[in-house]
């Protein structure tokens, strides 16, 4: 009797899981990939749109039947997940039953969670770079600023791509050029964390602070924003301080979507998973990527990053096949990962290591080089070529 596997979300993890499932399962089994639009991009591309090195159209990923042969692609909004009935409620596709499920719905932007942020975005005194359109708009606003202060603000943790805010600060300074080097426009980064990328350890965080200092970018750790006043262009922080800005480049608060929260698997909405197999507490249900809460040996969550989502997608596919009774590889998530920190001028640093090493992640930040920038460009080319083949 044929079986059905539902994969929710066509981001990096979901696409990888669906493709790997098709290899691992018999042809008579159905694989259903459900996504609201089948349109996306890599996170690294968003930063290059922010810098003005890419246009949104150049880096948009639109997978088709030609790139996912043998996978049913259903365009629909996932409204809810009924674990007891083993069904997904989709709009407008209705109920889709499953024998096994892979949740890869990512993390959404919860702009309203920070008081005043929706109004600041609407007024144009703030912009965000976590969507293609937002990154392109922020690029234009940076280009138009002749003097003043640009604040790069992490509104809340956790958020996608732990290096992104600091890359954004570097790239904004690079775009400003003489306006930045002359001091006409200042760039400062604010985050609730004590250091950048805290899960990677203090050595990595302090190295990034030193890099920012070397470029003339101010770093302000331990700053939790509680409200924004778009009229006065100020941010109030939990420590009682207030900081002013002329342009705010914000990482909005992130939140699990309603469908992810509807599973009831995690008290905060994020789905707890076994670090090795990506299995949830419900048999036959696996979760990968940004929608998960994968705890490391030191008790901190694994950072939300595409490199992990892709690796988890392969592991989850093999574990689903084994759960369904097939002779698939007993793959395990290793925790190995790397990310690049773009500094501008064709240079990038590279952080790499293992995040599941006890008692804490072992991560090294490599010195900036043109070679790492080229590696990052190749990642983008490979991903676009893989998924943008037309049917």
From TrEMBL:
Question: Recorded GO terms, molecular function?
Answer: oxidoreductase activity
Q: Where does the record place the FAD/NAD(P)-binding domain?
A: 4-120
Q: Which Pfam families match?
A: Pyr_redox_2
The record's section on Gene3D superfamilies has: FAD/NAD(P)-binding domain
Write down what this protein is called. NAD(P)/FAD-dependent oxidoreductase
Instruction: Provide the species name.
Output: Rhodococcus spongiicola
């Amino acid at each position: 009797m044929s079986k059905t596997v539902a994969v929710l979300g066509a981001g990096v993890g979901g696409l990888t899981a669906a493709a790997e499932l098709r290899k691992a399962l018999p042809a008579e089994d159905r694989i259903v990939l459900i996504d609201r639009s089948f349109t996306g991009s890599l996170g690294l591309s968003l930063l290059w749109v922010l810098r003005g090195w890419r246009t949104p159209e150049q880096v948009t990923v639109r997978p088709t039947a030609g790139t996912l042969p043998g996978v049913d692609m259903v365009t629909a909004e996932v409204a809810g997940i009924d674990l007891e009935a083993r069904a997904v409620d989709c709009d407008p596709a209705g109920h889709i039953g499953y024998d096994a499920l892979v949740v890869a719905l990512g993390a959404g932007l919860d702009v309203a969670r920070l008081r005043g942020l929706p109004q600041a975005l609407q007024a144009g005194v703030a912009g965000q770079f976590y969507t293609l359109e937002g990154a392109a708009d922020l690029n234009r606003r940076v280009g138009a600023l002749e003097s003043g202060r640009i604040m790069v603000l992490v509104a809340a943790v956790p958020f996608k791509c732990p290096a992104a805010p600091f890359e954004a600060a570097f790239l904004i300074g690079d775009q400003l050029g003489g306006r930045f080097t002359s001091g006409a426009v200042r760039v400062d980064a604010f985050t609730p964390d004590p250091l950048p990328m805290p899960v990677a350890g203090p050595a990595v965080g302090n190295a990034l602070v030193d890099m920012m200092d070397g470029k003339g970018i101010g770093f302000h750790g331990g700053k939790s924003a509680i409200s924004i006043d778009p009229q006065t262009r100020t941010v109030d922080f939990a420590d009682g301080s207030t900081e002013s800005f002329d342009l705010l480049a914000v990482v909005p608060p992130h939140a699990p979507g309603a469908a992810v929260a509807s599973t009831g698997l995690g008290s905060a909405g994020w789905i707890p998973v076994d670090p090795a197999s990506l299995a949830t507490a419900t048999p036959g249900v696996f979760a990968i990527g940004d929608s998960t809460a994968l705890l490391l040996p030191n008790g901190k969550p694994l950072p939300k990053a595409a490199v992990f989502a892709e690796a988890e997608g392969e592991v989850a596919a093999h574990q689903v096949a084994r759960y369904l009774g097939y002779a698939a590889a007993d793959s395990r998530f290793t925790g190995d990962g790397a990310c690049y920190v773009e500094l501008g001028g064709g240079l990038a640093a590279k952080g790499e290591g293992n995040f599941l090493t006890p008692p804490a992640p072992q991560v090294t930040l490599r010195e900036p080089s043109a070679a790492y920038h080229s590696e990052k460009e190749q990642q983008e080319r490979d991903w676009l070529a893989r998924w943008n083949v037309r049917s």
